């Protein structure tokens, strides 16, 4: 489990040979905002595909977060920066 500033990510080993992604959002905000947030998460995770390995990832966005404008950008930046750091730290252990 990785507890990042904007979300929590659960990771489980899989036998598929590549990463798989699940996204959990509360139905808070409009569907447009939720879909925009999910697109940003997918894009950020795709950019990290080389580091993600053969794991299942579930990105959980807390219900207290508002999905409005600056949040999807902050979340994507958090995934790119903080998740990458967390993955390198986890592989060193």
Describe the structure.
47% of the residues lie in helices and 20% in strands. It is of the alpha+beta class and 93 residues long. The protein has a single domain (2-87), classed as Ribosomal Protein S5, domain 2 (2-Layer Sandwich), CATH 3.30.230. It has a four-stranded mixed beta sheet with strand order 1-2-4-3, with helices on one face. The radius of gyration is 13 Å and the shape is globular.
What would a concise description of this structure say?
With 93 residues, the chain is of the alpha+beta class.
Strand-residue fraction?
15-25%
Tally of structural domains: 1
- Per CATH, the class reads Alpha Beta
Q: Using the 3D structure, state the CATH architecture.
A: 2-Layer Sandwich
Strand order, largest beta sheet: 1-2-4-3
The sequence of SSEs as H and E is EEEHHEH
The count of DSSP E runs of length 2 or more, i.e. the number of strands, is 4
């Amino acid at each position: 489990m990785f507890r990042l500033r904007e979300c929590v990510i659960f990771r489980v080993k899989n036998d598929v040979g590549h990463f798989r992604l699940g996204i959990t959002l509360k139905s808070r905000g409009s569907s447009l905002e939720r879909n925009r947030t999910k697109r940003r998460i997918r894009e950020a995770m795709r950019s990290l595909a080389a580091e993600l390995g053969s794991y299942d990832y579930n990105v959980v966005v807390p219900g207290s977060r508002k999905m409005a404008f600056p949040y999807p950008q902050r979340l994507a930046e958090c995934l790119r920066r903080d998740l990458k750091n967390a993955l390198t730290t986890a592989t060193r252990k």
